[in-house]
Amino acid sequence: MSAKSVIDAFFDEPTNTISYLVADPETKCAAVIDPVLDYDHKSGKGTVKSADEILAKAAAAGCKIEWVLETHVHADHLSGAPYIKLKTGAKVAIGERIREVQKIFRPVFNAMDVSGDGSEFDRLFKDGEIFSIGNLKAEVLATPGHTPACVSYKIGDAVFVGDTLFMPDYGTARADFPGGDARTLYHSIQKLMAMPRNTRLFLCHDYLPKEGRNHYAWETTVGEELDRNVHVHHGISEDEFVAMRTARDSTLSAPLLLLPSIQVNMRAGKLPPAESDGVHYLKVPVQLA
Q1: Confidence of residue 210 (pLDDT cuts 50, 70, 90)
Q2: Domain 6-260 falls in which CATH fold?
Q3: Is 6 helix (H, G, I), strand (E, B) or coil?
Q4: Rounded distance, CA 53 to CA 247, Å?
Q5: Residue 4 above 90 pLDDT?
Q6: 134 and 189 Cβ atoms separated by less than 8 Å
Q7: Which of 13, 24, 149, 217 could form a disulfide with 134 if both were Cys (CB 3.0 to 4.6 A apart)?
Q8: Per-domain residue ranges of the chain
Q9: CA gap 135, 144 in Å, rounded
Q10: What is the pLDDT of residue 241?
Q11: Where are the alpha helices (DSSP H) in 61-115?
């Protein structure tokens, strides 16, 4: 099988999200990773501009999109997976522990239509499972901690790590969402760090640090993370990481799109069922002190 994929990145600045088109140059088969639906929270309106950019790139390259791969149930953007599936017939896939995420959040939103068994998705991947994108070998790596269902995708010489790691000068994912765990995240990061130093890592988000870099970036390597990641550089112990991550998470506010994102993304990117007036509504659970 070919070891080298063709990778195009698409940066959505409103959500700081990077989506990817990954193609096999020999067969022109492709996968889209973590596509974004353009959603304006103030108006409740959405567009498919970002997804159309990916589709246009695939068409220009003569690629057939066979997969939409979600690294996890995102809490900061709505998924564009259903639209890409509609346009291409691609299968939408995620890690098998999506079942746990659905069971955590179904009662939060009284979302009784949500299955709890992950059947909203076309494929649930197990840790270590192998699948193909044309002649490219793709391997699923369970990397929980940010959420229970987080997975990374190793495709050729590249690994798409979702929110597990950020650029070395920014650190690591938060672990305080329901089902998240800082100690589990540490072990997932060590799993990635055990790969060869020249392994390319592609990130799902980038946020500019307070000092230094003034441009967005989303590709790094295992070696760069080992040497320079401000949270998990060489020598940091598990207990030190857990203490740091827990303290840092306690200062973070909820992402702007947390509530709409979870409701949509646990349904494989679909909106909640329309009500009697034909309108889809997103819920905001209200808690009074």
Answers
A1: confident
A2: Metallo-beta-lactamase; Chain A (3.60.15)
A3: strand
A4: 39
A5: no
A6: no
A7: 24
A8: 6-260
A9: 28
A10: 97
A11: 81-88, 98-105
